[in-house]
Amino acid sequence: LAKTTQPISMDSYEGQEVNITCSHNNIATNDYITWYQQFPSQGPRFIIQGYKTKVTNEVASLFIPADRKSSTLSLPRVSLSDTAVYYCLVGDIATNAGKSTFGDGTTLTVKP
Amino acid sequence: SAVISQKPSRDICQRGTSLTIQCQVDSQVTMMFWYRQQPGQSLTLIATANQGSEATYESGFVIDKFPISRPNLTFSTLTVSNLSPEDSSIYLCSAGGVGSYEQYFGPGTRLTVT
Question: A28 vs chain B: nearest CA distance in angstroms?
């Protein structure tokens, strides 16, 4: 079971790029890396998912090195509304949700 | 994508009683899950709700305490039985499709046990 480690909190300012790294040393061959965003009193919301190298969508980029033991979520030009908890999830959710583990989450605070 | 609703959004229950939480998805999905989230903490998977068969529970969670039903591809219920203050938490339903690594989450049900 892949355990993930993330920084507990990060601060940033509006307009800056934010990079949040997740460590997952025991990632299995079939595991994917998925990031979720959660606002207070809401359920988590999918941001991005990847297996290796780099993935980009309209919201974020995900960088995964060749050894896949870590991943970095990159949020370009953050705004106040990006203040949230960001979770890294590693697992083969499509076939075995029980083997997918949410990390402890990183609380990102964006300041004006 | 899928939109998920949960009922109730919150409840205050007395010790020893039970609460049943409903989860409704606006489209047919293959997989549905139930999570628990303590305030300020991460999500813990309780079980996978299997359509037409018994749910698959994670370590530390048992059917007698958390019975789950899933009568069709769009609906599931979680019952938290014999409530104690330690059950006070947020319970979240999520759904996903086979071959998809994206889960859609409901807004959660905040349970307070007195």
Answer: 15
Residues 6+ apart with CB under 8 A from A67: none
The pLDDT value given to residue B18: 98
pLDDT at position A1:
58
pLDDT, averaged across chain B: 92
Contact A78, A17 (CB under 8 A): yes
CB distance B33 to B49 below 8 Å: yes
Backbone angles phi, psi at A99, to 5 degrees: -100, 10
Cα–Cα dist B95/B105, whole Å = 7
Each residue's pLDDT tens digit, B78-106? 999 999 999 999 999 998 865 666 788 99
Amino acid letter, A81: S
Which residue in chain A is spatially nearest to B105 when comparing CA positions? Answer: A43
Please name the member of A32, A46, A102 whose beta carbon is closest to the beta carbon of B43.
A102
Give A45 to chain B, closest Cα distance, Å.
7
Determine the residue of chain B that is closest to A88 in CA distance.
Answer: B42
First to last CA, chain A: 39
Contacts of A30 in chain B (CB under 8 A): none
Residue B13 one-letter amino acid: C
- Checking if the pLDDT of A99 tops 80, the result is no
